[in-house]
Fold this sequence. Notes:
Largest interface: A-B, 65 and 60 residues
Distance between the termini of chain B: 52 Å
CATH architecture of the largest domain in chain A: 3-Layer(aba) Sandwich
Mean pLDDT of chain B: 90
CATH class of the largest domain in chain A: Alpha Beta
Helix content of chain B: 40-55%
Helix content of chain A: 40-55%
Structural class of chain A: alpha/beta
CATH topology of the largest domain in chain B: Fumarate Reductase Iron-sulfur Protein, Chain B, domain 2
CATH superfamily of the largest domain in chain B: Alpha-helical ferredoxin
Low-confidence stretches of chain B: none
CATH class of the largest domain in chain B: Mainly Alpha
Radius of gyration of chain A: 19 Å
Radius of gyration of chain B: 21 Å
Low-confidence stretches of chain A: none
Strand order of the largest sheet of chain A: 2-1-3-4
Number of helices of chain A: 13
Order of helices and strands of chain B: HHHHHHHHHHHH
CATH architecture of the largest domain in chain B: Orthogonal Bundle
Number of helices of chain B: 12
Order of helices and strands of chain A: EHEHHEHHEHEHEHHEHHEHH
Oligomer: heterodimer
Distance between the termini of chain A: 43 Å
Shape of chain A: globular
CATH topology of the largest domain in chain A: Rossmann fold
Largest sheet of chain B: none
Number of domains of chain B: 2
Shape of chain B: globular
Amino acid sequence: MKYWYFPGCSLKSSGRAYEESLLAVFRCLEVPVQELDDWNCCGATSYMSADEVQAFALASRNLALGEQQAGTGGNGGAQLLAPCSACYLLLLKTQRYLAQHPDLAHHARNGLKAVGLTYEDKIKVRHPLDVLVNDIGLDRISKLVKERLSGLKVASYYGCQVVRPFATFDSPWAPTTMDRLVEALGGTPVKWPLKTRCCGGTLIGTVPEVGLRLSHILLQDALRRGADVMITLCPLCQFNLECYQDEMTRQFKETVRLPVLYFTQLMGRAFGLSDKELGLQRSFMPPPWACQARA
Amino acid sequence: MVSAQRFRWVRRSMKYQSELDPGFGEKIANAAYGEKLFSCIQCGTCAATCPVSQYMDYTPRRIIAMVREGFRDEVLNCQTIWLCASCYSCTVDCPKEIKITDVMYALKQEAMAQGMYPKRFPIPILAQEFFRGVERAGRNSEGPLMVKFFLKTNPLGMIRNIPIAWRLWRTGRLSLRQESTRDKNTIRNLLRAAKRA
């Protein structure tokens, strides 16, 4: 089955490595993925604060485009992959709210009509983690593993908006999907309680006093529990947790240094893909296996 | 006649009910599909689970109480609603199933519509710049958004971020190109037609 892919703004710029590694992993698994043509902004968290009805209208255009481009063929309708947490939440929220609130659906329908589209609520919004683990399956994934991640201690960080509040595939409090994936790749999941605590989101840019502290708490706890690497499934979490480590070291007077990768980069590594294919050259620090090789 | 000036030290610490906005709670509840706002039992689970409540001027629990009673100006001018990072912890933990994150969004929208947010407070300015960019081009462009944001809020803050920006640039993660959908008018038409009458 083919999946349609909604990148959103981050996967085209600061989170490019997420797109690169995601597509590489799906290629490896021989599962076809095609980018949604002419997609627009998902409606995102910031947009919600300004005008909710318009945010839903924006999201519904993407859903309508997905339905149109996937056509009516295929079994069970089209599937839209949304790797960014904010996009995933907003597309799901739009589906729920349009179904529950006829007046909202009316506004969205008016908007879509003006641009010659219709939305029939037939498309399914999925997170790639859900698809990889629950559709494709850990069996098929572990068969592709060429280099087991033996001895690598991985702290899986889920963040907020994928598991909350519309979590369709895992618990909003204690999700385990990524930990099971890490085990299938031969790594050791680190048990830590903060895996769904907020990283601060955009606060790191707007009110750094608050945002830095929130991200620092997560890194500190993962380090204390012996993690060699942290993996995330959200471009904003990845950015906050990786790029501000020098700033945290300065501010909190304690060395903070932990590679933060996308879960797809870790998968690709286990599949034997090159660093370049996985966008690892875009990281601010070398991956943990680079240090292992040198040691 | 006794001048009020002479009694300046007599300060009232509470508001009379007549000074509140009685319809405010209802209005926000409707805007947030949070018709359950009035069933809040003030247990404080939201305040306890919130990762940023220690930075807020009013905890989420107090915000709900104040919204219900009609403390319109206090709520719309506070920092709390803007510090909410939309992590949805309170929404999933609330024993009365109140969608507190949606209440925060409704308050942000109302504050934005009334222009009542704290001046030069960076969070609403980011939301506004984001909104404008998408309205114009259909897509957000991270690089240009950040530049506009810093110019409007804290030009000196840009200097602090130069090291990170430089590394992002070198690793190909920062672009100043404006992204857009194929036809920019599409999004403009969509948004115009979807507007609440």
